[in-house]
Amino acid sequence: MDFADLALQYRPYLVGFGPVLLGVLGWLWTLSSRRFQQKMASEAFRRQGDTASLHWGNEAIDALSEAQAVAEGGPDAPGFEERRQDVLWRISSLVDRGRMFFPNLDMEGHQTGPAFLPFVGKRGGSGKERAFTGNRPPIIDTLMYAYYELRSVGDPNGPTAENSANFIFRCRRLFVTALQAYLDPHRYDDLIDRYSEQNRRFRDDMIVKSGELGVVLDARRAGLLTQCEGKDFGWSSRVSADRRREILHEVQAEPGMCPPIDGGDETEETPKIEAAE
Description:
Elements: H1 3-9, H2 11-73, H3 80-98, E1 119-123, E2 126-129, H4 138-152, H5 161-183, H6 197-220, H7 241-252
Antiparallel strand pairs: 1-2
Helix pairs in contact: 2-3, 2-4, 2-5, 3-4, 4-5, 4-6, 5-6, 6-7
């Protein structure tokens, strides 16, 4: 029996199966096309968010640059107090605006609570707004630390104006690094998952750097974060006691750090945190 005979014998089955096969192929094509369209729509939405966050980031970079200039001029510069208050107000506003793009994280580095729960956790027996539970993300920490430093410029027992400007410059550099990683300009045309394993490792590295920056600020300003009423530890609770001592010695050795900083909190046990806004 040749092929022609087989075709004639099974023709009724082939005729019946043909439409089914075409239907399956059409369904697969439709599914693939729909997924591609969803991915393109998701990418378009992501880019809209990136445009908004980039605009916010540019304003924050400008504010940090001005904060550095104000600090460098020192309290004796003409119009110092007016300029400082203006920059502090702008940074404070940028911090809360930034929460729209960078929500707080829990101690494991994950976003806090579901969006439909406006209040989670308790402090003093009352619920706390979800946007302010957990820890600030590192990119917001850089703004807050620059805010604290600028607010403390002029303290007779603190660092020199030049030293304060250098610290704010460090905050700005870390801010730019975090923002660039979030926007991911090197892979803008690749429709891939933003939260890849590489980016998760980078986020963890940023948490470490943010924690160490907080320890530096606390050492520079004699317990400004750990001894205040609100105890704004942030990610510094993850910094080991040995690393804290290393940072303290590094800060003491910086030019302009006179008088020498008190050893402060060098206990072996890392401070326990309930929540840091």
